[in-house]
Amino acid sequence: MDSPGYVALTRQSGLLREMQNVANNIANVSTTGYLREGLVFSEHVKMLEPAEASLSMANANVRHIDTTQGPLTQTGSRFDFAIEGEGFFMVETAAGPLLTRAGSFTPSADGELVAPDGARLLDGGGAPVFVPPDATSVALSADGTLSADGVPLNQIGLYLPADPNQMSRRADTRFAVEGEVIPAEEAVILQGFVESSNVDPVSEIARMIAVQHAYQMGQQFLDKEDERIRSVLQTLGR
Question: The whole model's pTM is what?
Answer without folding.
Answer: 0.81
